[in-house]
Amino acid sequence: MKAIGIFVNPLINKFNEIFEMLQKLNTQGISFYFLNEEINYPDFIKKHSNEKLSVILVFGGDGTILRAVPISLKLNVPILGINFGRLGFLTESNFKDLNTVFSDILNERYKIQKRMLLVVSVNRKKETVFKELGLNDAVVIRGNVPKLINIKFKNNKRFVLETRCDGVIASTPTGSTAYSLSAGGPILTPTMEAIVFTPINPHILSVRPMVFKSSDKLHFIVEGSEDRPILQIDGKNNFELESNDEVLITASKHKVSFIKLTNKTFYQILRRKMHMGKI
Predict the structure, then answer these.
(1) So which residues are the catalytic ones?
(2) 26 vs 241, which has greater pLDDT?
(3) Which of 33, 120, 161, 188 is the most buried (most CB within 10 A)?
(4) How remote is the C-alpha of 188 from its chain's centroid?
């Protein structure tokens, strides 16, 4: 019997349709276990304890998948996203294809795609005061005072540049199609091993996005800020920075696993969801 974890965005409005479909599948040799408690799950979906899961099925958009990543890492279980969001770039399928999705899962007709994570830490007066993982990106951005912040950027402790800007983004290849892309950064294929540096509204035109090896260590030092800039990881405000704090970005030894059901290439997804190349 397959055991499948369920993680549902509490803001979507199709709970009844989702649960009706899952209940039909529950009679076909599949057991379901919920992994978030923001909503009331029906009785046939049990609370997960120590059951070994085959997959975490995430109903929502890219933001919901990002919230499910820590659970995936903790349980060592791959994620499969069912899109209920807007773009759904990280999701693999749609609700209307759910029967096909389960057929592929039961018959193990899928591949596992591993994607790199960032380790984001903050050093303050030679002490690590914050540490977190990110799938998409880490962003240092100005706080409430509407002024540019001054950031000194080093790579492997070697000086790269200094700039006044609204902030900077360090992204994974997965995150290269998210905030970094909106700020003018390059698109990287998601299975690459690299870290993208993208400035946000730099005051000097010559400060451009750059791509670094995943083995590099990126250092961002916030200097002389009148307001506390914010460190955001995967779209969440995680930590308030002080002047002379050092944000260190490295690649994690851990990777998050995604289930890939189809043979669609990354470039097909870009053309379909982001209209790449269309006039």
Answers:
(1) 62
(2) 241
(3) 120
(4) 14
Place of tokens 């209307």: 96
Estimate to the nearest angstrom the gap between the alpha carbon of 199 and the chain centroid. 19
Compute the radius of gyration of the chain from its Cα atoms.
20
pLDDT tens digits, residue range 217-231? 999 999 876 678 999
Domain with CATH 3.40.50.10330 in the chain: 2-110+261-273
Residue-wise pLDDT tens digits, 13-56? 778 888 888 888 776 778 899 999 888 889 999 999 989 999 99
The CATH number for 117-254, chosen from 2.40.30.20, 2.60.200.30, 2.30.30.140, 2.30.110.10, is 2.60.200.30
> How far is the C-alpha of 193 from the C-alpha of 175, rounded, in Å?
12
What's at 195, amino acid-wise?
I
155-159: long-range pairs with CB below 8 Å, 24+: 155/212, 155/216, 155/217, 155/218, 155/219, 156/216, 156/217, 157/217, 157/219
Q: Is 274 exposed, middle or buried (0-12, 13-18, 19+ CB in 10 A)?
A: middle
Fold of 2-110+261-273: Rossmann fold (3.40.50)
- The conformation of residue 78, written as its DSSP 8-state character, comes to -
